[in-house]
Design a protein that fits this description.
single chain; 7-stranded mixed beta sheet; 3 domains; alpha/beta; FAD/NAD(P)-binding domain; 5-stranded parallel beta sheet; 13 helices; Enolase-like, domain 1
């Protein structure tokens, strides 16, 4: 059986579904193909279930402040980890069902279940069907990595694909890989009362590059989640359990949560049949502004291209790929300002350019610690924010922070960076009291002292006459 369509979208995740939303504005002659579970990575195993577990853990953790606040009974509270995981799954299933019911089922025969492979750039095969297509969007996502040397322990190793399916978790666990996911879940599980230790080959956590921010983050989070950084990690069998070794440190645990990266889901696609050179990771080159692969009628969007593997970027890429698949000429769209948030406590955030990308340009840097009255009221462990700007004019370039509720501050800074605002522009805006934004104001004031170009007699106040 052969079917001819204008556009084929492979993958029903965030990028694929956003591509559908653009394609469907122009043509009904398209198909969406998906092999494997439906519901998007975010809803099934990523952003949403992890945030549910983090909220449960944070709620339970707040009991530590009850006695000080005059609230009795804190010692009688317990955490049912199995019950918490059941709650996570119940909300997760609602998120997934919503995606399927609202976005997949209405497609009817334009949705095809199965794994697609290329025969050539305009011909695909799915099960016993061939599809002749004018344009194709690859949006097949990614999956967690389990190194070959540890695959023999698979029944004792968890990933984000499996941890939320557990009906119970053992008391002794290790988290290997302290990027965004490992750090978030490691701290959450520790707050739920499990004995958790974290390990990473790198010296920094949560994607941080600024050494001062990283030092503060490690110091604060390390009080809850012991971390062993900067050394290779080994995992060995130990009488049916697992021994995790990092340098001179050795721990015996029942399970390991592995969070050491993700790989694109491309092995079934036969991308070599596109006739373009593939990189070491098996991916072809693509234009991140148009999402087009070379000069082919093929586009790549979302986690599969490994460019900026976060949901809002996948959404952006899906929209761009969908637009370009049904319009001519192909258009390049400006990328959004980079924004990364780790929902640990404190939040770890990078807005705009990271310290690693700016260090050699000698930017002006403003620093402030979170230690004021609102921080104490929130029983926050504190943190630090560092803001980077062009030293000659004060245009904000980037920021890194370990900050209470930093998710909101990071958005404000990312928006300001995208609008090319200066430190003086930001200081001219209001800062209420008492709010966490006052610490950002302190960092900006510190930054302004190091920038040339402010001629105002009172910094941040515009002269009107």
């Amino acid at each position: 059986m052969e079917r001819s369509v204008d556009v084929t979208i492979i993958g029903a995740g965030t990028a694929g579904l956003d591509a559908v939303s653009e394609v469907s504005k122009i043509t009904d002659n398209f198909v969406l193909i998906n092999g494997g579970a439906l519901g998007t990575t975010c809803a099934r195993v990523g952003c949403m279930p992890s945030k549910v577990l983090i909220q449960v853990a944070d709620d339970f953790h707040h009991r530590c402040a009850f006695t000080e606040e005059g609230i009795g009974g804190a010692d009688g509270l317990t955490a049912d980890v199995g019950g918490a995981l059941s709650y996570v799954r119940s909300l997760r299933d609602r998120f997934v069902d919503g995606v399927i019911e609202e976005l997949i089922l209405p497609l009817k025969d334009r949705f095809i279940e199965g794994y697609a492979e290329f025969i050539d750039p305009t011909l695909l095969k799915v099960e016993n069907m061939t599809i002749r297509t004018k344009k194709t969007i690859i949006a097949t996502g990614s999956r967690p990595v389990i190194p070959d040397k540890w695959k023999g322990f698979k029944d004792r190793i968890l990933t984000t694909d499996t941890i939320f399916e557990q009906t119970q978790l053992p008391r002794d666990m290790a988290v290997v890989g302290l990027g965004v996911i490992g750090l978030e879940l490691g701290q959450a599980l520790s707050r739920m009362g499990l004995n958790v230790s974290g390990f990473d080959l790198l010296e920094h956590i949560g994607g941080l590059k600024d050494p001062e921010v990283n030092r503060v983050a490690v110091e604060i989070i390390g009080k809850e989640l012991p971390m062993y950084l900067g050394r290779p990690v080994e995992i060995k069998d130990h009488e049916g359990r697992l021994r995790v070794i990092s340098g001179s440190q050795s721990f015996v645990v029942d399970k390991v949560l592995l969070s050491v990266g993700r790989v694109p889901n491309i092995e079934r696609l036969h991308l070599e049949r596109l006739g373009v050179e593939l990189g070491k990771n098996g991916l072809p080159q693509f234009d991140p502004l148009t999402m087009q692969v070379g000069n082919l009628p093929v586009f790549m969007a979302g986690d599969v291209n490994h460019y900026r593997p976060v949901l809002h970027e996948a959404s952006h890429e899906g929209l761009v790929a969908g637009y370009n698949a049904v319009h001519t000429p192909i258009i390049g769209f400006q990328r959004r300002t980079p924004l990364m948030i780790t929902f640990s406590d404190p939040n770890i955030c990078i807005a705009g350019a990271s310290w690693a990308s700016l260090e050699k340009t000698n930017p002006a840097v403003g620093t402030a610690r979170f230690s004021g009255g609102r921080v104490k009221i929130l029983h926050s462990p504190g943190g630090v924010v560092r803001v980077y700007a062009d030293a000659s004019g004060g245009r904000i370039l980037g920021a890194e922070m370990a900050a209470p509720r930093g998710e909101h501050l990071a958005h404000l800074l990312a928006w300001s960076i995208q609008q090319q605002l200066t430190v003086f522009d930001l200081l001219s805006t209001p800062y209420y009291h008492p709010v966490l934004e006052e610490t950002l104001e302190l960092a900006l004031s510190d930054l302004a002292d190091k920038v040339k170009g402010d001629s105002n007699p009172l910094r941040g106040l515009r002269v009107v006459h």
